[in-house]
């Protein structure tokens, strides 16, 4: 039985494709967050500026921003994934920078998990947060923690490799 080995060039090529994909996902996500979430409250603030209804529009905008924090953190994770694959495409596969980038990607996912519990659509209400969304919240946080750990392992392996290269 022979083992196939993935070449660095193949990883770089696939990573370049994933970088483009995550770039598109970030653009689509940013557009959707603006058009579906932020547009109407922003429009209300602009149209009611200087009137008595303006204060209520600002309050609605603030509530919308708080409820959108988990989605914004996920958008940050998508952007960080784009940066991770950009580094891989540039040849930084086993490097301290790649490990740190993976760790930051996990941080964004964990942040989105925490924000969804406190500020998400459930508004921090335990009966809603721990109802239908509990499994998705647990999975997102678990994946984030796993990616953080993988990032730390890559960072440590790169440091060990660098020490080994200096010795040899």
Topology:
Elements: H1 8-47, H2 54-89, H3 96-119, H4 126-129, H5 134-167
Helix pairs in contact: 1-2, 2-3, 3-5
Short description:
The chain is an all-alpha fold and 168 residues long. Helix content is 82%, strand content 0%.
The proportion of strand residues reads: under 5%
In round numbers, the mean pLDDT is 86
| Oligomerization category of the chains in this entry | single chain
Tally of strands: 0
Number of helices: 5
**Shape call:** elongated
Largest sheet: none
Q: Cα distance, first to last residue?
A: 33 Å
As a whole number of angstroms, the C-alpha radius of gyration is: 21 Å
The parts where pLDDT drops under 50 for at least 5 residues are none
Structural class: mainly alpha
N to C succession of SSEs: HHHHH
Residues in helices, as a percent range? over 70%
Key structural traits:
5 helices; mainly alpha; 168 residues; elongated
Molecular structure report:
The protein has helices spanning 8-47, 54-89, 96-119, 126-129, 134-167. It has 168 residues and is mainly alpha-helical. The relative contact order is 0.11. It has 5 helices and no strands. It is 82% helix and 0% strand. It is elongated, with a radius of gyration of 21 Å. It starts with 7 loop residues before the first helix and ends with a helix.
């Amino acid at each position: 039985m022979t083992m196939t080995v993935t070449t660095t060039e193949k990883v770089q090529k696939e990573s370049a494709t994933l970088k483009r994909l995550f770039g598109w996902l970030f653009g689509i996500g940013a557009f959707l967050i603006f058009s579906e979430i932020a547009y109407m409250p922003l429009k209300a603030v602009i149209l009611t500026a200087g009137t008595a209804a303006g204060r209520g529009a600002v309050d609605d905008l603030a509530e919308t921003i708080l409820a959108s924090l988990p989605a914004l953190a996920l958008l940050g994770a998508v952007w960080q994934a784009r940066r991770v694959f950009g580094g891989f495409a540039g040849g930084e596969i086993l490097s301290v920078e790649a490990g740190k980038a993976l760790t930051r990607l996990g941080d964004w996912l964990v942040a989105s998990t925490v924000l969804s519990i406190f500020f998400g659509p459930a508004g921090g209400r335990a009966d809603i947060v721990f109802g239908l969304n509990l499994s998705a919240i647990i999975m997102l946080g678990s994946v984030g923690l796993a990616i953080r750990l993988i990032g730390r392992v890559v960072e440590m392996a790169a440091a060990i490799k660098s020490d080994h290269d200096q010795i040899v």
